Amino acid sequence: MGCWESISMDFVFGLPKDCDGNTGTVVFFDRLSKMTHLAAVPDSIDGKAPRTPTFHSRYHYVVLGLVGKILLTRLLKSSLPRCRNKRNCVHASLGRLRS
Questions:
Q1: 79 belongs to a structural domain
Q2: CA separation (Å) from 33 to 2, 3, 6?
Q3: For residues 23 and 60, what is the distance between their CA atoms, to the nearest angstrom?
Q4: Taking the C-alpha atoms of 93, 30, 35 and 20 in order, what is their torsion angle to the nearest 10 degrees?
Q5: What is the pLDDT of residues 18-39, one digit of tens each?
Q6: Is 35 contained in some domain?
Q7: CA 38, 86, 3, 81 torsion-angle sign
Q8: How many domains does the chain have?
Q9: Does 27 fall in a domain?
Q10: Cβ-Cβ contacts under 8 Å for 65 (sequence gap 6 or more)
Q11: Is the pTM of this model over 0.85?
């Protein structure tokens, strides 16, 4: 099993407000590499929140944004020794995604 194949996701609420008014954190944890990614979230999640379009929009933005960062980081790291600069790494990674 490789990195980011077995992950856990947790929410932490009740934290002091940051400058954007966020009081929670979503935590993605890779069990193999022990690597984590954190993102601030605005409020606690109640039973009604998943039914609203606003919740879905924010949730998918945070989750898919983090997953995209994780995948891009993973792709760039896997192709890094063969690349001379970041631009070539991105093109090489995108080429592999297309095929």
A1: no
A2: 9, 6, 10
A3: 18
A4: 90
A5: 888 888 888 888 888 888 888 8
A6: yes
A7: negative
A8: 1
A9: yes
A10: 39
A11: no
